[in-house]
Amino acid sequence: MKYIVNIISFLLGITAYSQIVSKAEIVTRTSTVVEMASEFFPREKRLIKISLPKGYDKAKKYPVIYTLDGNSLFDMVTAYSQILGKQTIEEDGYDYGTNVIPPVIVVGIFHNDRNLETEPNFNGLDYLEKPNNLKNFIISEVVPYIDSNYTTSGYNSIIGHSNTAYFTTNLLFQEENPFKSIIALSLTEGSTAFYEKLIEKLNTKVDGSYFLGYGRKDNEFNCIAKKIEAHVSNKNVLVKKFNSNHSDLPASSLVDAIKYLFNDYRNFNDFNKAIRNTDFEIVEYLSTYEDKIKSKYGIKTQVLEDDYGSLLDETVSSKNIEVFNKLVEYDEKKNDFEYPLIILFHYRKDIGDNQEAKNIAYKILESNDENVYKFLVNKQIDVFTNFFVENLNSLKEAIRFLEIGKKKYPEKELAFAYFIAKISIENNYQLDKGKVNLRFCTENYKKNWYFTKSDLERLNEKFTRY
């Protein structure tokens, strides 16, 4: 197997070198190629490629993702990182942001002789001579260059595939290691000592995160991954299998891998547990979250609109009215935002705060806001009707609400009349009103959102039985 690994590495190395030479002088609008001299490769010029996030701001700090195999992985890592880290952009009323990860700088490391520079040590733990030179070049020259020329946050990650996965994984055992998180794809097995030491290391301490991806069809490179998957239990380590072979594994796995580098970013999994405490305070909780993100990734962050929505959903699911009130009040004050009545109605209804939901329902009915009209009259008369009937268990209140709506919105009289007739006839309640409104709907029927002629016929059949 080791022989096969070296043959593959040799072929990849030839391809890498030919592609580097063709790109050496290219500087694009989104990335820059830098030619570096190195004391560790004194007779060579080394190439790195740098991609900055859209809207790069020197006043902000950015995590950095370094990737080996720059010829094959740099463009892919850059593209995935830009998509995952796209900030909120409103255009034509739509939100095109993703914000799955924070914006990052991506640095590609290109190889002059990949086979020699990344050759695994099958007889021990130490890097061989050329890989050791590459390690020193990256740690002592590339990382300082990036830190001195760009505003970096101190959270560095590194990616490798096949032999370079072995290279990046071996950084776990180095005293000087500027990379807090590592992505290893198709990890070469290495020596028995390396495997045993790696199992021990992954089980005891990983400061950032370690992602190991392997392919179901990548038979020469999935043995050690399966062993680690079976013997390592650490919340900072993720081993994941993909339906891939050796060459297509990076394309299949890098989205998951990059997301895992930032697994605490916009992660509020502890919120539902936290709100059970009687002394819970939303300000303190969010401050703790921001401190955690600053400590781990070196960046300032803020809770996004979607995040507030998910936190509110948690409070609704747990029926925690007190925390819900605190969260709404905080969000409105912090972000100068007022929740639309229609949204508050649904929240209050779902959380079980029926009295406040009722108050909001009448406010909605009294409102002259065009958006309220669109939601209530065009799409949700049935929702409000069901609320009064099922949640409040008040047929009288339901009919009163509908009669007010019928009077206020004469252009929608048909819909309001139908629900009055439906409540009355189905519940044998105030049948005189049911009869009048059913006749109105029958005589004035036209195609609408809420009911059909068949619905009217069923109501009429039921009415004639009384």
Which tags fit this structure?
single chain, 466 residues, alpha/beta, eight-stranded mixed beta sheet, two-stranded antiparallel ribbon, 20 helices, 10 strands, 13% strand, elongated
Q: Could you characterize what this model shows?
A:
The protein has 466 residues and is of the alpha/beta class. The chain has 20 helices and 10 strands. Helix content is 54%, strand content 13%. The strands form 2 sheets. The chain has an 8-stranded mixed sheet with strand order 1-2-6-3-7-8-9-10, sandwiched between helices. α2 crosses α8, α11 packs antiparallel against α12 (321-334) and α19 (431-443) packs antiparallel against α20 (453-465). It is elongated, with a radius of gyration of 31 Å.
SSE map:
Elements lengths: L1 H22 L7 E8 L2 E11 L10 E6 L2 H15 L5 E2 L2 E2 L9 E5 L4 H4 L11 H21 L2 E10 L1 H8 L10 E5 L6 H13 L4 E7 L7 H9 L5 E6 L6 H13 L9 H4 L7 H16 L7 H13 L3 H14 L6 H11 L2 H13 L3 H10 L1 H11 L3 H14 L4 H15 L3 H13 L9 H13 L1
Parallel strand pairs: 3-6, 3-7, 7-8, 8-9, 9-10
Antiparallel strand pairs: 1-2, 2-6, 4-5
Helix pairs in contact: 2-8, 11-12, 11-13, 13-14, 16-17, 16-18, 17-18, 18-19, 18-20, 19-20
